[in-house]
Amino acid sequence: MAKIFAYTTASFPFLLIVILFSSTLTTAKSDSFSRNLSPKTLGVKREKLSHLQFYFHDVLSGRNPTAVRVAQADSTKRSLSSFGLITMMDDPLTVKPEISSKLVGRAQGIYASASQSELSFLMALNFVFSEGKYNGSTLSILGRNSVFSGVREMPVVGGSGLFRFARGYAQAKTHDLDFKTGDAVVEYNVYVFHY
């Protein structure tokens, strides 16, 4: 018994350090704002890959435009690329190129001319779906849209509803562009992983 007591007494400073360090870790954990979760906790099931195709109608002309210019720099009018122009949009999304075709949602957000050398937009928008199983769900897009390129690719950076934890990409291809009014119809093909 004496050996155990002697060992314990000799180890006392070490044990004290271990106990203090352990209590510090416990305290640090309880003050933390994050924790690891199992995906099952949130009802996350098997990941799927979905393809969505629709048409985006950006209407700048007429009595009820769906996109309006909200800001520009003094130099924007002299810029061939409209550098500095910012536009707010609430554009309809339809199943076919005709604006009268079935509405599946809206593209809500902003685009800004972000290049001094070409017409290229910084796009920050949400696709807000209003049809079928995706009704009420959104996809968030943030990326560069070089307008006169054949197909432009922008990342899907998130989503809500059925698109929680979404990631993927959107391809935009101009279907029709009226150079006089600026009105455009753009075909979107969106490939998105979600649960």
Beta percentage is 35-45%
The stretches of 5 or more residues where confidence is low (pLDDT under 50) are none
Distance separating the two termini = 61 Å
Could you spell the SSE succession in H and E letters? HHEEEEEEEEE
Number of strands: 9
- As a percent range, the share of helical residues equals 10-25%
Characterize the main sheet: 8 strands, antiparallel, barrel
Spatial shape: globular
The spatial strand order of the largest sheet comes to 1-3-4-5-6-7-8-9
Radius of gyration: 27 Å
The mean pLDDT is: 88
Question: Structural class, from secondary structure content?
Answer: mainly beta
SS field, number of helical segments: 2
Protein name: Dirigent protein
Organism: Salix suchowensis
InterPro entries: Allene_oxi_cyc_Dirigent, Dirigent
Family: Belongs to the plant dirigent protein family.
Q: Which labels suit this protein?
A:
single chain; 195 residues; mainly beta; eight-stranded antiparallel barrel
Could you explain how this protein is built, in words?
The protein is mostly beta strands and 195 residues long. The chain is built from two helices and nine strands. Helix content is 14%, strand content 44%. Strands 1-3-4-5-6-7-8-9 form an eight-stranded antiparallel barrel. A hairpin with an 8-residue loop joins strand 5 and strand 6. The N and C termini lie far apart (61 Å). The mean pLDDT is 88. This is Dirigent protein. It comes from Salix suchowensis.
